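Problem statement: downstream parser choked on a complex file, so we are re-checking the raw output for the glutamic acid run. The parser issue turned out to be on our end (a line-ending mismatch), but while we're here, posting the original submission so the record is complete.
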Amino acid sequence: MTDRKALMADKKRIVVKIGSSSLQHKETGDLDYTKLDVLVRELCNLRNMGKDVVLVTSGAIAVGKKAILMKEHDDDDPIAVKQACAAVGQARLMMIYQKIFAEYNQVAAQILMTKNTIVDNLNRYNAQNTFSELFKLGVIPIVNENDTVATYEIEIGDNDTLSAIVASLVEADALLLLSDIDGLYTDDPRTNPDVKYIEVVEELTEELMNMGKASTGSSVGTGGMTTKLQAAKIASSTGVDMVIANSSDIKVIHRILSGQNIGTLFLAHKDERFDLPLYVQRMHLGEKSF
Ligand code: GLU
C-alpha cells in the first residue's frame, strides 16, 4: 500500500484545479462565495507553509453568462458567444479572486494560456520564466485557457488537461484535480451498482485509459473522466503525482496534502521520452495514438 503521508510530506510545488461546477450553486448557477472563500483560504495557507501554489480555475464562460444575463450553460452556444462570455467572465472571476486573496494578504496573478503557449518554444520558455519569477516573488498564479482568443473546445479545451500541462510546465510535485466526482471507478457509479472505487493507480494501463467516460454529469465544465485520465497521463509521464477528489468539501486540499486517504491517487512514473509540446500538438490534431 502506498504510504500517502510519506508521499505527500515533501510536496513543495502544488497545482490545484477547480472546475466551474464546483464554484457555482447548482440551483442558480451563481458563484458560491463560501466555496471560493474556503478555496482561497486553503491556497493561502499552503503559501504560508512555504509552498509554491498555482490555481487553475474554470468559470470564465459560466460567470460571463451570468453577468450578461444569458441562460445557463448550453453546449450548443456558438463558439463566438462562449468567447464573448469568457471575455466578460474571466475579468469578473479575477476581480473576485483578487479581492479574496487580498483579504488573506496574498498577491495573485493571472496567466491565460493557449495551445501555442506550450507548442511554441519561445512562448513556452517565456511562460516558464514568468511562473518561476512569480514563485520567487511569492505570488500565486491563477491560470485559465485564454478562451477569448483560443478557439474554445478545439485548442486545449478543458481545464483538467490544462492543469496537467501547467503542472508539467512548472515541474510541480503534486496536482490536485477537484471536481464533482470522488475519484476513479471501474465504471460509471450512476449507472452500474457493481462498480469498484480505485484508491491508487500505480500505472496507467491501456485498459484504464479506455475506461474513462465522457461525462461526469456536470453541466457546466467540459471535463469528464476521459480528460481526467488524459491529465493523469500527462502528469504521471512528467513526474507529477496527481489526485482526483471531490470538491464538495474544499478542505480536502489540506487533508490530501497531509496524507489522508482521500480521492484517487495516480502515481508519477516519469518517462524521459515523453515530449509535452509534441503531445499537446498531437492532442490538438485529434490523433488517437498518443
Ligand atoms: N476555460 C473554461 C472556462 O473558464 C472552462 C473549461 C473547463 O470547464 O474545463 O470557462
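For whoever reads this later: The radius of gyration is 18 Å.
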